[in-house]
Amino acid sequence: MGKTAALGEKNRCFVLKTSRWVVLRKIFTGLFV
Predict the structure, then answer these.
(1) Can you tell me the distance from the alpha carbon of 11 to that of 32, in angstroms, rounded to the nearest whole number?
(2) How far apart are CA 10 and CA 31, in angstroms?
(3) Distance CA 3, CA 28 (A)
(4) Which DSSP symbol is given to 20?
(5) Sign of CA dihedral 27, 28, 29, 30
(6) What is each CA distance from 21 to 1, 4, 16, 32, in whole angstroms?
(7) Which of the 8 DSSP states describes residue 21?
């Protein structure tokens, strides 16, 4: 159980990082285009 919870936490952190990066990229492309 603890292993699955740790894996889910890691996955959630990764998703947060990726979504933030996608938003930043959208902002940058919006500025340059």
Answers:
(1) 32
(2) 32
(3) 38
(4) H
(5) positive
(6) 30, 26, 9, 16
(7) H
Element of type H or E holding 33 = none
Identity of residue 20: R
Question: What's residue 3's pLDDT?
Answer: 85
Name the strand (E) or helix (H) holding 25: helix 2-32
- Tokens 């990764």 belong to 14
Amino acid 16 reads L
* pLDDT at residue 19 in the model: 93
Tokens (6 digits) for 31: 């500025």
Q: Which residues of the chain have pLDDT under 50?
A: none
